[in-house]
Write a structure and sequence with these properties.
With 536 residues, the protein is of the alpha+beta class. It has 4 domains: 64 residues, 2-Layer Sandwich (Phenylalanyl-tRNA Synthetase, Chain B, domain 1), CATH 3.30.56; 191 residues, Phenylalanyl-trna Synthetase, Chain B, domain 3 (Phenylalanyl-tRNA Synthetase, Chain B, domain 3, 3-Layer(bba) Sandwich); 66 residues, Phenylalanyl-tRNA Synthetase, Chain B, domain 1, CATH 3.30.56; 179 residues, BirA Bifunctional Protein, domain 2, CATH 3.30.930. Helix content is 30%, strand content 29%. It contains 16 helices and 28 strands. Strands 4, 5, 6, 7, 10, 11, 12, 13, 14 and 15 form a 10-stranded mixed sheet that branches. Helix 1 crosses helix 3 and helix 9 packs across helix 10. The protein is globular and about 70 Å long.
Length: 536
């Protein structure tokens, strides 16, 4: 889970709540865990479903609700900023949305929190800027209208943190951020945001400009979010907007007209969604009796509005998808210690599941062979599961996904491992594995997958790894020819234990390696842990 840091005095300034009382609330009434408090610096682990807590402003908003300093869904005054942005067609990063927050009190602590929020959102939802990138700018140093378009490598500007002006090509090739993030865009003509005087605000998603960066004393902040998923870009923009509004004296939000070739969009899109949840519904889930008045009060403390069985969800809580999410927030405000405890009606003795026993043995075997373990989400995208590995097949899609990046349930692990490996290029050798769940039809299976990426890697290397892996369990596999899309047909084999096919191993085709950005021959393999249980 993400770990955020902030100063206790800054939290007190934003909330008016004493430091000790605020820390007590953080420990017992806010989802997450306080890791340390040293010399006034608080380090807190927060959960992925609360991106509004990735900076002190969102945490302060939550605490103000708990102490009734401010209750209900936060509101702001929406005005037309007068800023227009013209958006060109950028195939690898097609969406750009902006907003303005006025009268922001910007000091060193505020800048630190803006950078932290930018980084945590970029890492957690932006796949390290591959899916989204965020920028903050001093609006008073920008000359509208703005333009989101491609830029030549020879164009010169002064990047943030550099001592001199540099060409865009130098930024991409010669800076740490250019080398790290430049691979997400076209290197010959990368996208950038310009103002009407031809000044670069940022090369997306790499590095902004010293000219219009936010500094102490900035009052009006322009925010931009660019990315590959329209819905995610707009949701992240709302989180950023409402965080900065906590530091705004006027709580004024300025809209920006985004002019695309196929139509105009006024951003941000501030929508207060409604979910049907009433006191009776919450009482059944929590095992207590709440009347409508008490339920409405708890919801207001959790920063929701409530009227006649309908809960109003503020825009920055885009991960509130179900009534249970709201009821969980009510339970946190109420305090879990105030909920009744019940002993289970049936008594049983716990024991380790046999599948988990085998899975742990396989982990030990992998590590003994020098592989490193990684962990991916069960939810992923069609791009990863089908397009990159060139393997079309029916996939299970989530009915109401938060993002297209997490819209499908994986049925294999190796596509995600290939993507992880690509993040570690260049490297002389990559040996990684994962043991996790996949969905096959209507069943969930535990699967062990690995990839081996190095010069001259062949199917033989994969077979040796499988023999060693299953030999650790006392099993002797046999192999037969198998064709898997995305793997070289004559260099792919099914893995059998007796009469049971338990997996496959094979060499990745050059086309797939090019798609994912791997430069060395790569062997992948998967074994069903469930399929191994009960085999001899």
């Amino acid at each position: 889970m993400p770990v955020v840091s902030f100063y206790a005095w800054d939290l007190k300034r934003l909330t008016g709540i004493g430091v000790e009382e605020a820390l007590e609330l953080l420990r017992y009434r806010v989802k997450g865990e306080v890791e340390s408090v040293e010399e006034g610096l608080v380090r807190m682990e927060v959960t992925h479903d609360r991106p509004d807590h990735f900076s002190v402003e969102g945490i302060a908003r939550t605490l103000k609700g708990l102490k009734r300093v401010e209750v209900g869904a936060p509101r702001c005054k929406v005005v037309d900023s007068g800023v227009t942005t013209y958006v060109d067609v950028i195939e690898e990063r097609p969406y750009s949305f902006m907003a303005v927050v006025y009268d922001v009190d910007v000091d060193a602590a505020a800048i630190e929190q803006m950078i932290q929020l930018q980084e945590k959102l970029g890492q957690t939802f932006g796949r390290d800027r591959r899916a989204i990138a965020i920028g903050f700018y001093d609006l008073d140093r920008v000359s509208p209208p703005l333009y989101y378009r491609r830029v030549e490598r020879s164009f010169t500007y002064h990047p943030i943190g550099e001592e001199r002006e540099m060409t865009v090509g130098e930024v991409l090739d010669g800076t740490e951020k250019g080398q790290r993030y430049g691979r997400h865009i076209r290197g010959d003509r990368p996208p950038a945001i310009f103002d009407d005087e031809g000044n670069i605000l940022t090369v997306v998603p790499v590095l902004g400009s010293e000219h219009n960066k936010v500094r102490e004393g900035t009052r009006n902040v322009l925010i931009d979010v660019t990315g590959t998923d329209r819905r995610l870009v707009l949701n992240v923009l709302n989180v950023l907007v409402f965080s900065l509004l906590e530091r705004s004296r006027s709580r004024r939000l300025g809209t920006v007209e985004m002019r695309y070739r196929d139509g105009n969009v006024t951003a941000p899109i501030i929508t207060y969604r409604e979910l049907e949840v009433d006191a009776a519904h919450a009482s059944r889930h929590l095992g207590i009796t709440l009347d409508e008045e008490r339920f409405a009060d708890l919801l207001s403390m959790a920063r929701y509005d409530y009227t006649n069985g309908r809960v109003v969800v503020p825009p920055y809580r885009f991960l509130v998808l179900h009534p249970v999410d709201i009821i969980e927030d009510v339970a946190i405000v109420l305090g879990y210690e105030n909920l009744p405890r019940e002993f289970p009606q049936q008594f049983s003795v716990g024991k380790r599941n046999e599948v988990e026993i085998v899975a742990n043995l396989l982990r030990r075997a992998f590590m003994a062979m020098g592989f490193q373990e990684v962990a991916n989400y069960v939810l992923t995208s069609r791009e990863v599961m089908e397009e990159l590995v060139m393997r079309r097949r029916p996939l299970i899609r989530v009915v109401n996904p938060v993002s297209e990046r997490y819209a499908y349930v994986r049925d294999h692990i190796y596509p995600q491992l290939l993507v992880v490996a690509s993040y570690n290029m260049p490297a002389t050798e990559i040996r990684i594995f994962e043991v996790g769940d996949v969905a096959r039809g209507y069943t969930v299976e535990k699967t062990a997958a690995f990839i081996l990426c190095r010069d001259k890697a062949t199917l033989t290397d994969g077979v040796v790894a499988v023999n060693t892996l299953l030999g650790y369990l006392g099993l002797k596999p046999v192999y037969e020819r198998l064709e898997v899309d995305g793997l070289i047909p004559e260099r792919t084999a099914a893995i059998r234990i007796g009469e049971r096919r338990v997996g496959f191993v094979g060499e990745v085709t050059p086309e797939v390696l090019t798609n994912v950005g791997l430069e060395s021959p790569t062997v992948v393999g998967e074994v069903s842990v469930d399929g191994l249980v009960g085999t001899d």
